[in-house]
Design goal:
Layout (H helix, E strand, L loop, with lengths): L2 E5 L8 E5 L9 E11 L1 H8 L12 E2 L3 E9 L11 E5 L9 E5 L3 E3 L6 H4 L2 H15 L6 E5 L4 H12 L3 E6 L4 H6 L3 E4 L4 H8 L6 E4 L3 H8 L8 E3 L3 H7 L2 E2 L6 H13 L6 E6 L3 H9 L6 E5 L2
Parallel strand pairs: 9-10, 9-12, 10-11, 12-13, 13-14, 15-16
Antiparallel strand pairs: 1-2, 1-4, 3-5, 3-7, 3-16, 5-6, 6-8
Helix pairs in contact: 3-4, 3-9
């Protein structure tokens, strides 16, 4: 039977294990996808830890994973625009993404161009989509100064590139070990930690025009004063801080219509997902542990096939 990497109860990594599951049958509006690659994201361990159980209720055990790429194996009733054998990618698989087969809502799927690898495509539905839509929401003008708070992870990597190509001046906070990497993306790297606002002010004495936050908590409060207009602060991770600061909490819209342009950016070379680590499916625990610890550079992807 097909394998899936699941968590059996809410908690820590000790709840994770491989199990054999029957192959799913797609219902109306669904695709059965033979998974080739699955993106590994911080949201995956947060789901396992139970932080999102109220907004994302699950029947346990449940497979981990929120973004996949693969090949359509079966098609449910009422699905249009897809055929068996199509190469696709998409978000929020109904049965989890760390699996050999997954059910994917057709409305949350997009066609994968042949020139885009399965590993790159598996990074687009969550991280790159969040970056693309968040930068779009900020409506940056050429020459505007953007602070990407948390520029070294998957969302930050995409956000820096997208903002840079719009003509923005980008400053990115990240750990000192990621300085060379963040600079290579076209951003001015600033290290996290005490004094971070002063270090940013040294390179942006007039403050910043907008902040795209991917860290939240104290790290967001530490830099929020650099934005004269607090409504130009958006965060993808901390709604409480957004409300208290007068900014906005941003949630990505998951649909195929919004995903297709991202594949085009990768195909044209305008966006490099920077997949830094491709891990065999059998080592899913190791891959997720690295992301949970915050040690991952760029994107980590599980190679399922």
């Amino acid at each position: 039977m097909p394998k899936a990497y699941v968590f059996t109860e809410y908690g820590g990594p000790e709840t994770q294990t491989f199990v054999d599951l029957p192959k799913h049958v797609p219902g109306p509006g669904e695709l059965l996808v033979a998974v080739h690659a699955a993106g590994v994201n911080p949201v995956d361990w947060k789901v396992r830890a139970g932080y999102l159980r109220e907004v994302l209720p699950l029947t346990l055990p449940a497979a981990l994973g929120t973004e996949i790429s693969g090949v359509v194996e079966e098609i449910g009733d009422g699905v249009e625009g897809f055929t068996i054998g199509d190469e696709v990618f998409g978000a929020l698989p109904l049965t989890g993404g760390y699996a050999e087969y997954a059910l994917l809502p057709a409305q949350a799927a997009a066609h994968k161009p042949a020139a885009v690898s399965f590993t790159d495509a598996a990074t687009l539905s969550v991280s790159a989509a969040t970056a693309h839509q968040g930068i779009g929401r900020l409506n940056l003008k050429p020459g505007a100064t953007l602070l990407v708070n948390g520029a070294g992870g998957g969302i930050g990597v995409a956000a820096v590139q997208i903002a840079r190509d719009l003509g923005a001046i980008v400053i990115g906070t990240a750990g000192p070990d990621k300085a060379e990497f963040v600079s290579s993306l076209g951003a001015t790297h600033i290290s996290y930690g005490p004094g971070v606002a002063d270090r940013i002010a040294a390179v942006a004495p007039n403050g910043v025009d907008a902040i795209f936050d991917l860290v939240g908590g104290d790290a967001l409060y530490a830099v929020a004063g650099l934005a004269a207009d607090k409504s130009r602060i958006i965060t993808a991770v901390d709604p409480t801080a957004a409300s208290e600061l007068g900014g906005g909490y941003f949630q990505v819209a998951q649909n195929g219509e919004s995903l297709s342009p991202l594949a085009g950016l990768v195909e044209s070379g305008a966006l490099d997902p920077h997949v830094s680590k491709v891990v065999p499916f059998v080592e899913a625990a190791t891959a997720l542990a690295a992301v949970e610890a915050g040690h991952a550079l760029g994107k980590t992807v599980l190679k399922v096939r």
